Fold these 2 entries.
Entry 1:
Amino acid sequence: MKVLILNGPNLNMLGKREKVFYGEQSFDAFLPELKEQFPDIELTYKQTNVEGELINWLQQVDGNYDAVVINPGGYAHTSVALADALKIVVAPVIEVHISNIFAREPFRHGSLTGAQCQGCVTGFGLKGYALAIESIRR
């Protein structure tokens, strides 16, 4: 099984930004732990601060990956274009948010992108990525 993990804007700053919400570990430091937890799954990781790059990567999923785990960051709350790109993906997509978006500012309570996903995991820290992968494991 091949799973694409996509992280959106500012997630390259994990471990440095708002540690109360996002913790002290960078995703690059976390990724080897995730790969060790799922040795039978080929994990590919990409991060960008650019909305169009996320869309381009989503448009290349079908036929190349069996599933997607996406943390669209702030684009979850604002990007109709990203939500439209998610509608096109045939493979299962799980949205992850490290912090509990429902316990934060009201503008974070909705997710345009999450509505286009098979499911959402929110508020479990980096463990949310493992929960998402586990949910799509065959």
Entry 2:
Amino acid sequence: MTVKEISSITDISIRTLHYYDEIGLLVPTSKSDAGYRLYDEKALEVLQQILFFREFDISLQEIKEVLQNPTFNRNQILQMERGMLKKKKKHIERLINSIDNLLKGDYQMDFEVFTKSDIEELAEATIDHMFESILQETIKEFGNKEAWK
């Protein structure tokens, strides 16, 4: 597939795909005789993984480090991302329910939906499933796990 074809099926801009190539995050499988970047099914799997990570606002540099880590385990990462999405879904459902109650005329002040507990659960799930190299970088940057959370 060409960059244009990938852009049309993923709704990711051509410029973004070019940038991913420039930084070595999503390198083309090959190039055509005319110099067009070409991607195979494996590259699309990598792009999908990148998009999952981006859902959690993980930096492109961190994503690159994870994907290049020799201990990268796709299924383990997908399980971690699934768990994090379920926690995010739970939080969003609580917010929606709170709005629904207000729309029904239930004007109870409910600030519990804005507590940090859901976010803290997400942070804990993230830390629990980080690759050791990223965890060590995180600790180096923030001092310890608690400071990062």
